[in-house]
Design a protein that fits this description.
Layout (H helix, E strand, L loop, with lengths): L13 H37 L10 H47 L14 H16 L14 H5 L10 H5 L4 H7 L5
Length: about 190
């Protein structure tokens, strides 16, 4: 231990690091082969349990057809289950994404979009910098549209009529309303 209280790390030679890395890779490849053989044996065992061996040579045509129909029904049921599971998985994945987004929102961390690399020359970059400084220093009121205020008296001069007067003339029916009110048949 040194005076500052930190430990000095022992330096490992590069040859030793390479040797250790090769040993770890060899060990990992052995484990992968072992896992693959275990999966294959498990797959064969499950297939033997679930799928019995078929002897189709002694069956008649009707029996073979009924067996095919039975297999088709089994395939349809398995496909329906697979579809249901896929829908559940996709729904759960969407829900997980929404929840992680909510968690990130609560933490205040946001996903950054992937940025594309853009080639910009030095002149364009200087022009962009000069343009942004020019835009920020501009007077914002100079671009506003001027609006003239109208007198309030002009707005109040609108005539108000009684809507109950001349209803037939206003409706555009020109006396047809009377025919409906009296119950007279139309001509």
């Amino acid at each position: 231990m040194t005076l500052t209280g930190t430990w000095k790390r022992a330096k490992i030679p590069i040859a030793r690091k390479i040797h250790l890395k090769s040993l770890m890779l060899a060990n990992a490849s052995k484990k992968l082969e072992k896992e693959k053989s275990e999966r294959d044996t498990e797959k064969n065992r499950v297939l033997k349990e679930t799928v019995p061996e078929l002897n189709t040579s002694s069956l008649s045509i009707q029996e073979l057809q009924s067996m095919c129909k039975k297999f088709h029904q089994m395939i349809d049921s398995v496909d329906a289950e697979r579809y249901d599971v896929e829908v559940k998985v996709s729904k759960n994945a969407r829900e997980i994404d929404n929840l992680t987004q909510k968690v990130l929102d609560l933490k205040g961390k946001f996903k950054r979009p992937t940025l594309r690399r853009v080639r910009v020359s030095a002149d364009e970059m200087l022009g962009a910098i000069a343009e942004t400084t020019y835009k920020t220093s501009m007077d914002l009121r100079s671009h506003l549209k001027s609006v003239k205020k109208e007198d309030e008296k002009e707005h109040k001069q609108v005539e108000v009529h009684d809507w109950r007067k001349n209803v037939e003339a206003m409706s555009g029916m020109e006396g047809r309303k009377k025919k409906f009110d009296t119950g007279a048949p139309p001509q």
